[in-house]
Amino acid sequence: MGTLFRAGQPQSHTANVLAEVSNACQVVQKVENEEKQGKALIDEALKHNIKHFVYASVERGGEEKSWSSPTNVPHFASKHNIEHHLRDSVATQSGSDKMAWTVLRPVAFMNNLEPGFGMKVFMAALRTELGGQKPLQWTSVEDVGYFGAQAFLHAEEYNNKAMGIAGDTLTMSDMDAMWRRTMGSHFRKRMDCSGVPSCGV
What we know:
By secondary structure, this protein is of the alpha/beta class. It has eight helices and eight strands.
């Protein structure tokens, strides 16, 4: 049996739940004290002899770079530090029955592309950074759930591994063409947030 943990749950609740399960999956959202909470859950998992711990992190440029570079983005850096705490804490466990671990590193979520002002700001910033032809990888939250389940179902295959998750690679021009075919208008018009300071338009 396993359970999914989100940051912010009371420690007493976490300890009680961990006493009843054999696997745990942690999704640490961008919250205050993210790193503290993430590391605390790993420590509790080790105390309660959890068999397999799956951590949903973030991709930071490939396998080698993700381990070595926390980046300057605060909630990327906190996830980087939690990853190291997970790997290093398991490595120091005594005995042969060590907790298995898997780190999932999704790229940008296509689920962020929902109608509204937030999407306009997000995409305008991407347009400024990427221009028209620089590609960006995308994935879905459903992909993360799928590979999290696979990690539990095929523990030996996924044990002690960190893996990036990407479902598609698109330039802004690609996205505009797809939007135009489906919606009949230019995608760039949906990104207009004129009048917003530092919007990038």
